[in-house]
Structure formats: structure tokens, C-alpha cells
Amino acid sequence: MGVDVPDLIGGLERGERRSLARLLTVVEDGDPARLRELIAAIYPSTGRARVIGITGSPGVGKSTLTDAIATELRGQDRSVAILAVDPSSPFSGGALLGDRVRMQGHHADPKVFIRSMASRGHLGGLSFATPQAVLVLDAAGFDDIIVETVGVGQSEVEIAATADTTLVALAPGMGDGIQAAKAGILEVADLFVINKADRGGAGQLEAELRGMLEMGHALEEPADGREASAGWWPPILRTVAVRGEGIPEVVAALDDHLDHLEAAGRRDERRRERALHTIREIALAAVRRRVTDLAAGDDRVLGELSGQVAARELDPYTAADQLLDALEAST
Amino acid sequence: MGVDVPDLIGGLERGERRSLARLLTVVEDGDPARLRELIAAIYPSTGRARVIGITGSPGVGKSTLTDAIATELRGQDRSVAILAVDPSSPFSGGALLGDRVRMQGHHADPKVFIRSMASRGHLGGLSFATPQAVLVLDAAGFDDIIVETVGVGQSEVEIAATADTTLVALAPGMGDGIQAAKAGILEVADLFVINKADRGGAGQLEAELRGMLEMGHALEEPADGREASAGWWPPILRTVAVRGEGIPEVVAALDDHLDHLEAAGRRDERRRERALHTIREIALAAVRRRVTDLAAGDDRVLGELSGQVAARELDPYTAADQLLDALEAST
């Protein structure tokens, strides 16, 4: 309501921050017609930004680390957008208190933009919205886009699918932090950062991590997403982000990784993977919508099937087959 | 490998705990052919158990509360299965240390079964696996199945879709606990429990919650899932689960809610909603699989589209349309 997408795109092209913010709200709201219009219009202007993913468990100091990296990048006169994706929060973005507090660290710097994004419960969720929000920030002309997300379950994999380089942050004394994150982080990390490294236990954490990496290297065939990293051994760096310690080295390592991707001709591979991820999520959201429409539609196919399944006249797999048949017949 | 589903179902029917555990691993693994075989075979034997959902933020004492409720139900000679679903953990179930520790509280009681379930990253995730795990526990003959999940984002909604009665647990002094959970909990709760009620702030928490409920009641049209609760005003109870205080009252309130559903003829409605949810998740997982197959298939439709999108020759929405066309042509 009251959202004129072409008008906002005009504003985006003129570098208006308010238009950018409102377009990100369009992405968050997830209205398919508006999103299609938006993405189709801006798509030719995208593909220039570097996308950095930063993930890690709660408490490792991700936000501080992200802000410190942003400050370092600004020192190199690069413009930076931070997209903080929180799969555990149902909050909407835009006006988050946290954003405002974080923005203060960057004063009125027009070349830093920070935005939180939450799932508003719309179809497809954050795995649908995040790559499209990145496209909007890309079209807005930021040199670097940092996607920061708390590492829970699938989110590490999602972030890696969106980023050129994925940084996994850890901290000593988080107990089973590594253990819990293990399944996800080894596969997605291009770079490990042990933050809060002034605490006891940083050395042990690094040793454990190195052991896991070596074991993983020895035991596992590279997974699909891993091909792009062939020839790259994820470095393990230490930081005390709150004091800026170790941050220049992290930024240098991010650059190294990008150089590696370029030199190995693998950056295009990452771009294709990212495109694949985006297409798939858009397609799945469309299917999800169709299924929901079938549930609400006049014929109420799904309603009838549910009644039969609830009455144990039909098992849910047979019902799902019939639902998919109905779905195809309806398109 | 080495999994004989009919054999395990035989064991399940004979009440063998090991067969039950292995069938839950089949669910967790998510192999579609095996799952279809399993669910179709057991489905006629399901629909008898009461399903209780328990959700809440980390730190409110969900596990302790769940265990205390299970103990109380055992005192009424009801058999109880607890399915602890953790969307934030990539761990596999079965051998979790936490399960073993928790089982000790129920000694060798054969009428209590506790199992953690985690997303193994398979297609569809926990929203696909959870309702099917509940069916297995239902077929195993448990009177009550408690699905316990940490309340993050979508998970409250998922749990409500699987349960007859959804209990939302809170605790004083959790700061923005209510705020963060707000969007989800008001819609799904049939029952609120303020645990750790011996701490200061329980009264204030209850007052806040009551205020939110009244505001929600005044402002909001009932959402779809809410219809089933018409005429039911979620009670707010207080417990100190670690000492068993307030637990009989919670169990009585769970019974009251079920009576209410039955009396209002609404339990069948919940069953239909649960069936709808299950069918939809199975169908969506199937579509997701087909999309992935298209990416890996000989024709590599998705691979080609990704290349064009990465090269900015095509926008991702148009590519998604073409992917869905290819999907339909291939079935």
C-alpha cells in the first residue's frame, strides 16, 4: 500500500537512503508481484559488490567483529552495507533499536548502512529474502555487503550460498560452541576468526579447530559447495574486536580469499552457485504459495485431503501425491 | 543401509524400544522412499495419542518443566513420549548425552521415552520430520506425546501445527523474552506457564502477558489456526518445575483444554489442521527434491539457468518461472 516500486528504484539510483530502506522493507514483506518487479528492474545493475558472510554462535561477538571490519573497510574508502539476519527473531527490521545503536558507531557516515532483517513469517522465510536483500544493496552501489547471521542450524549453509567469502567467528570459553557448530562450519568457512582472543583458551580452541579441519580434510570428500574452495585452506585468525585488534589482518585475509577465487577462476563459480540458490528459493516460494492457495481456494483440494487423512482414510504421502497432481493440473 | 522398515515396524508393534528408536532415525534421515513405506504402514494405527507442544525461549526451564509434566502424567499411569526438537542444533538424535541425563530422571520406566531430534540438513528440515516422528510415537502406543522445542522464529508456529494443545513457557527476568517471542506466542498458546515463579518479577511478567493478551484479543481478528480455540481464553499458570510446584495444575489445565476441544467439537478441526500441515510439508519436500534433482540431472536445467542469471542475461524471477516449467514438463 502506497509503495511505488519504480519511484523507490529511482530514489535508489539517486543514492537516497530512505528509498533503499523502503525497498528492503518490500523484500522483507515478501509480496511476490512487487518483489518480481523490483528484482527484474535492478538486476542488471547488480553483481558488482563483494558479499562477505559472517556467522557464529550467539555470544562470540559477531556484531562487534562486523562493525570493526566495516570500520577497517571504510578506512580503505570502501562503502559498506551490513545486513544483520536473525532467524530467531520475528521482529521486523528498519526501526530496530539495535540498528540505531550500531549506526552510532559509524556516526553519520553515508557510506555505511546497517539494517536488520527478520522473517515476518512470510512464505519462504529468510532463505528467500536474504539473497534478494543483497541484490538491493548491490544495486545501491555498496562496495562490500556483509551478511551477518547467528549460526543456527541451516543458517550457515544459507549464508555461504549468498556470499563470496564466509567468515566463521568463534570465541574461547563458549563450552560446546565448536561441537554444536561443527556440522555446519567446517563445510562453509573460508576463514575462521577466534574473537575475544585475550581470554584464556584461545590457543586450545585454535588447536581443536585445526584438528577438526585436518580430520575433515582427511576424511571427507569435498561437498558440492566446497569445490569452489579447492586449493584454499581456511586460515584461523585471532581478534579482540572490541579493541580493533587483529582486524586489519582479517580484512587482508578476506582480500586474499577473493584474490584466490579470482585467480583460480572460481569467483564466477560462486556467482553461479549464488544464482542457483536464488532461483531455487524463488521457485520454492512460488510452489509454497500455490500449495497455500490450493488450501484456500474454492475447490479446497487440500482441505478435502486433510479431512481424509485426519479420518485415516488416506495416508499423508498418498495425499501429498494427490495434492501435487492437483497443483500441476491447476497451472 | 541395513534398515528393514517392515521388520522395525514389527518390533514397534511388539513394543520394542530399539525398533522405535531406529524408526525415529529413519524419520530423521529423511530418505523419502523409506519414510513413505513407514508412514503408509503405520498410519492406520495412529491418531490415538494426545500431542502436547511445549515451547519457550532458551533459559525458561523447558526441559525441567517437560520432565515434571511427564512425571505427573506417569502418576496418572499414562505413558509419555518426549520429542525434543532443536532447530538450532545440527546434532543427530539417538545418542545425545542430554537424552541420557534426562532419562535418568525416569529411571528405567518403560513407559517414558525421550528422544532428541535435530535437523540433519536434509530436505524439508524439522517441519517435515517432526509430524512424522509424532506419527511413529503415536503408532508406538504412547498416551501422551510431548513435543518440546526452543521458541525461535517459525518453530512456535510449527509446533502448534503438530499439537492438540500448545503450552508456552516463560520465566521472569529474561529481559526481552516476551517482547522477542511476542509475534509468535500470542497466536499459538493454549496455555501459558510462568516457570521459575519463585524469582522476583513473576507478577509483573503475568501482568504484562495479560495486557498483551487483552490487547491482542481486542485488536486482532483470529488467525486461521486460532479458530480452533474459539471460546478458550489461555490460562496463565505459575510453576517452579525444579521442585514440582504447580505441575498438577498445569496437567489439569492441559486436560481442561482437551476437554474444551472435544466439547466444542474442535479436536477434529485440530486433527485436520495437523493433517493439512503434514501433507503440505511432505509435498513441499517432494518439490524441493525435484528441484534439486533438476540441478543435478543430465539436462542440468538449473545449472544453465544459473549461468545465465550469474551473467545477468536473465533475472532470477524469469529463471524461476523457467525452472518451474521444466519441473512440470519433467513429471
Described by its quaternary structure, the protein is homodimer
Helix share, percent of chain A: 40-55%
Largest sheet of chain A: 7 strands, parallel
What is the count of helical runs of chain A?
Answer: 13
CATH topology of the largest domain in chain A: Rossmann fold
Class computed from helices, strands and strand pairing of chain A: alpha/beta
SSE ordering of chain A:
HHHEHEHEHEHEHEHEHHHH
CATH superfamily of the largest domain in chain A: P-loop containing nucleotide triphosphate hydrolases
What's the structural domain tally of chain A?
A: 2
Overall mean confidence score, pLDDT of chain A:
82
Strand content of chain A: 5-15%
CATH class of the largest domain in chain A: Alpha Beta
Largest interchain contact: A-B, 64 and 64 residues
Overall outline of chain A: globular
Radius of gyration of chain A: 21 Å
User: Architecture of the largest domain in chain A in CATH?
Assistant: 3-Layer(aba) Sandwich
Number of strands of chain A: 7
The neighbouring-strand order within the major sheet of chain A is 3-2-4-1-5-6-7
In whole angstroms, how far apart are the ends of chain A? 28 Å
Low-confidence stretches of chain A: 90-97, 220-229
